[in-house]
Amino acid sequence: MSRTYETLRIAVDMDEVLTDTLGKQLRLYNQRYGTSASHSDLYGNNLVDIAPEPHKEWLRSMLHDPGFFADLEPLPGALEGMERLCAQHDVFIASAATQFPNSFNEKIAWLKLYLPQIPLNRIIFCGDKSILNVDYLIDDSAYHFEGLRGVGLLFDAPHNQHQRDYFRVHGWPEVEAAIALHEARKNGVDYTAPEEIYEPEDLLKLNFK
């Protein structure tokens, strides 16, 4: 990202934005039940939504198991994208980890390993992300954008495919372009976004009232 705009405050979710949480869920589920569930089976759903009823309790408990969050793989491009954002902007981690209290230490250890440039005082665990005072929140769950003062960038994931109300970024290569597009429009500057960036018709109404 070129140094065209002022320093921004950017909050980034962890699960399914930085970490391949769903990939681990699918792998463990398929190993346990001898199934072949994949990302393509989950259009608009979470894994627990499509699983047979006898499997649901185990799936719900999986995220509470000690160690689940400790060894998640980074999503493609996440570490490189974060390095570029951190070089120019004030970047915070905002995770709704309060749903899984056992994950606190594991998530902090993951960040120390993969993103040591994020200081501890910029790691925020909160269930209600509307309290964040940021210019951008990058998250895969659209409900976190409700009441947010800044712009919500919806990180593409199988479960959010029916969501059409927010600007969608299809992976980390599009994150920086999306921020550049929003900043250009906010500042009245011409900017042509890459063709693959999806833009809903009501983008301006939603983000620049």
Structure described in brief:
This protein is α/β, with parallel strands linked by helices and 209 residues long. It has two domains: 9-20 and 73-207, 3-Layer(aba) Sandwich (Rossmann fold); 21-62, no CATH class.
Protein topology:
Elements: E1 9-12, H1 21-33, H2 47-50, H3 53-62, H4 78-88, E2 90-95, H5 103-114, E3 123-125, E4 136-139, E5 151-155, E6 167-169, H6 175-186, H7 203-207
Parallel strand pairs: 1-2, 1-4, 2-3, 4-5, 5-6
Structural overview:
- Residues 200-209 have low confidence and may be disordered.
- The chain has 7 helices and 6 strands, in the order E-H-H-H-H-E-H-E-E-E-E-H-H.
- Strands 3-2-1-4-5-6 form a 6-stranded parallel sheet, with helices on one face.
- Helix 5 (103-114) links the parallel strand 2 and strand 3 (123-125).
- It has 2 domains: 9-20 and 73-207, Rossmann fold; 21-62, no CATH class.
- With 209 residues, the chain is an alpha/beta fold.
Helix content: 25-40%
Low-confidence stretches: 200-209
Q: Assign the CATH architecture of the largest domain.
A: 3-Layer(aba) Sandwich
Query: How would you write the strand order of the largest sheet?
Result: 3-2-1-4-5-6
Overall residue-averaged pLDDT value = 90
CATH topology description of the largest domain: Rossmann fold
Q: Return the string of H and E elements.
A: EHHHHEHEEEEHH
User: What's the total helix number?
Assistant: 7
- The value of Rg in angstroms is 17 Å
- Portion in beta strands: 5-15%
DSSP strand count: 6
How many separate domains? 2
**Structural class by SSE content:** alpha/beta
Q: Report how far apart the termini are.
A: 26 Å
